[in-house]
Amino acid sequence: MDLTTTWDGLPVAEDPPHGAAILVYRWERGERRWLVLHRAHRGPDYEGEWAWGPPSGARLPGEPVVDGAVRELEEETGLVLPLIEVDLDRDWAAFMAEAPADAGVRLSAEHNAFAWLPLADALRRISPAIVSSQLERDAASLPAVLPPDRAGLAEAARLLLQGEVIAFPTDTVYGLAALARETGAAERIYEVKRRPHSQQLIAMAAEAAGFDGLVAVEGWHREYMERWWPGPLTLVLPTLDGTGTLGVRVPDHPVALDLLREVGEPLLTTSANLSSRPPAMTAFEAASLIGIAAVLDGGEAPGGVPSTVASLVGDEPEVLRPGPISADQLRRTASDRGRRR
Predict the structure, then answer these.
(1) Radius of gyration of the chain (CA)
(2) Closest Cα to residue 56, out of 31, 90, 27, 32?
(3) For residues 20 and 95, what is the distance between their CA atoms, to the nearest angstrom?
(4) Over the stretch 292-302, which tens digit does the pLDDT of each residue have?
(5) What is the pLDDT of residue 6?
(6) How confident is residue 54, by pLDDT bands cut at 50, 70 and 90?
(7) Which of 32, 109, 247, 286 could be bridged to 25 by S-S, CB 3.0 to 4.6 A?
């Protein structure tokens, strides 16, 4: 194929990525079904007939990669969907999108048919092989999406106890989780998130007593726990062995608490996103992270802002990261404590 122009004569960006494939799926009967389109044109410039393939198209000169992908998806299918980047380091970038179950497809003149297919059927139809292999590789990287019922919670707990990393909803944003006692699993969180080790993970448990083996808790610390837990406040406390500090939190979300009770021990957590990117607010956004085993789907996260982080290492609380609970609210807690002395 001539990479200088598109099939209809438009110029193509000379710098990579030259275009993008958009891997679109929707849920049917608990299974992902992938959107494939049938091309209406043939010819030697297309290595024979490019029969079935995912929505895709070239990037115009100077066009941002994601803008080009959004444009191509809308032009070819009529769909306007949030895109999650899968890989921008290829000559042909890859994005992923989840469509509603009732999404209507409106084809352009470039295509004359479409289908929503299970992955195995989509792979059999797609040509050329390089395109089907890309879909196979990218789809295989997707984690399982588990419902927050008894079976889903049991499976999420099983994966965690086997040392896997999963994503789960909290009262603030979606988070990544691994067993606190499993060093290798915690290391995988850093790999998934591409996060520097200088930024600590946060421990979560279903109740304050779950941290007894991790941090040194003084009497006045418990007043903050009793006032703000479960809730969006992470307390930084000295570790029990005296070697440092650790942030701890009890989330105020029924699915998160059910998971923590099912696991029965603390989890190390952080927000579900690549480092420096916005945190995931839905299971779909969390599921775009490569390297996690599953996502526990609790619907959209209600908070939208990561928890307040406050250090209780000194004599008074120090806010290290602003969040839903303000410094004034924490100071009032300290004032109440002072009046009770």
Answers:
(1) 24
(2) 90
(3) 7
(4) 999 999 999 99
(5) 66
(6) very high
(7) 32
β-partners of residue 308 are: 233
The sign of the CA dihedral 292, 294, 300, 305 is negative
CA distance 81 to 254: 29
SS3 89: coil
Residues near 275 by beta carbon (within 8 Å), at least 6 away in sequence: 193, 194, 195, 196, 199
Place of tokens 């003084």: 218
**Tokens standing for 85?**
């980047």
* pTM (predicted TM-score): 0.75
Asked if residues 264 and 271 have their Cβ atoms less than 8 Å apart, the reply is no
* Locus of tokens 């699993």: 185
CB atoms within 10 A of CB 158: 14
Work out the angle at residue 25's Cα, subtended by the Cα atoms of residues 39 and 11, and round it to the nearest 5 degrees.
45
CA pair distance 194, 341, nearest whole angstrom? 45
d(CA 160, CA 240): 24
State how beta strands 267-271 and 202-204 pair: antiparallel
